[in-house]
Amino acid sequence: MYVHFFKRVIDIIIGLVALPFILLIIICCAPFIYFTDRGPIFYNATRAGKDYKPFKMFKLRSMYVNSPDLKNPDGSTFNSVYDPRVTPIGHFMRKTSLDEFPQFINILIGDMSFIGPRPKLYDKNLKLENMAPDYRKSYLVKPGITGYAQAFFRNSVTQDEKFHWDAYYAERISFWMDVKIIFQTFYSVIARKNINTEQSYNK
C-alpha cells in the first residue's frame, strides 16, 4: 500500500510544499548562471527512469556551455572539486546541492520520487532484460532526489556498488527506510561528506 499509493501522495505533498522555495532558488541562482557565460539556466539531461524508460531531468546548470562529457573508469559521471568544467556558481551549487532542487518539478510530473535510486544515464542501446540482476532490480522503482546509496555513500563508492545498494533499496522499500534515508541525507549534506570523486582528474 505504501509503495503503490502513499509514497506517491507524500511525493505530491512534498513537491507542492517545496515549489515556492524551488522557484526562489531558481530566481536567485539564474542571474549568476546566465551571466557567467550567457548560457542556459537549466541542464535538462536524459535519464533512465522506472523500468528503464527515458525522461528529461531538470537541473540548474553548473558547468560551462559545451563542456566535454567526462566519465570515470567505471562508467559513472565524473565530478571533482578540481573539475575545470564547473563554473564558480556551479561549485557553490554542487556543494550545497542547490543544482538538484529543480528535480522537485520531476516529482510533481511523476517521473521521480523524493526517495529512490539516483537517476542514471540512459542508453537507448541497453535493454532491461539484458542487464545484471542488481542493475535490473534498481529500475523497479522511480529514481529519486536522494536514495540509499546517495545518503550513505554519495560519491565514495563505484557505479557497481551504487547499483548494488539501489537494488537493496528497491527490494526492501518501506516508509521507515525512507525516513531513515531522509535523516541520513540531511547529515551528509550538512557534513558535506563524499561530494566528489577523484577517479579521472588530478590537479
Structure description:
The protein has 203 residues and is mostly helical. It has one domain (2-191). Helices cover 46% and strands 11% of the residues. It is built from seven helices and five strands. It has helices at residues 2-37, 88-96, 103-109, 133-138, 148-152, 159-172, 175-191; strands spanning 42-48, 54-60, 113-115, 120-121, 144-146. The strands form two sheets. Strands 2-1-4 form a three-stranded antiparallel sheet. It has a two-stranded parallel sheet with strand order 3-5. Helix 1 packs antiparallel against helix 3. The longest helix has 36 residues, at 2-37. It is globular. The N and C termini lie far apart (50 Å).
Structural class: mainly alpha
- Rough shape? globular
| Low-confidence region ranges | 197-203
Strand arrangement, largest sheet?
2-1-4
Radius of gyration: 17 Å
Question: How many domains comprise the coordinates?
Answer: 1
* Beta-strand content estimate: 5-15%
Mean pLDDT: 88
Share in helix: 40-55%
Total helical elements: 7
Let me know the largest β-sheet.
Answer: 3 strands, antiparallel
Give the N-terminus to C-terminus distance in angstroms: 50 Å
Instruction: Give a count of the beta strands, DSSP E runs of length 2 or more.
Output: 5
In short:
The chain has 203 residues and is mainly α. It has 7 helices and 5 strands, in the order H-E-E-H-H-E-E-H-E-H-H-H.
